[in-house]
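Data card: per-record layout.
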Amino acid sequence: MLLRKMMSKLGVGSAYVDLLLNKNVLKPGDMIDGQLYIRGGTVDQKIMKLDVDFVCKMLREGKEEDTVIATIPVAGEFMIEAEQKKFLPFCYRIPEHITPSQPGVSYRFITRLHIEDAIDTLDFDYIQIVSE
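The structure for this 132-residue chain is written out next.
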């Protein structure tokens, strides 16, 4: 048991998160929804918070630049038991005035499961913004 706790602090056998979206092609102003699937690892863990960043990645002068458009808080502190499965609802409205996806401009959601005394778990989900 002690070995499992130590390994989970390093991210091995830790809790896992996956953002499951209902669609990945959207227009400005569209509502996107889905679920956050959380699966407990090999030991019980305390989750400090769960949030999702909506990020624009731009290529400028040969360098990638990430801009966080919004941080969507999903859940505060909770416990996830070993091997437990949880689903939480997710929804977010894409801003009305947003540049459509194109070469050099892309969008993604970065989901962060902040775990007490352990390496945080991340999930990346790309979406495409099309003009109306």
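Known properties of this structure: Residues 100 and 129 are 5 Å apart (CA to CA). Strands lie at 16-21, 25-26, 31-39, 45-60, 63-75, 78-80, 85-93, 105-115, 121-129.

See the next section for split statistics.
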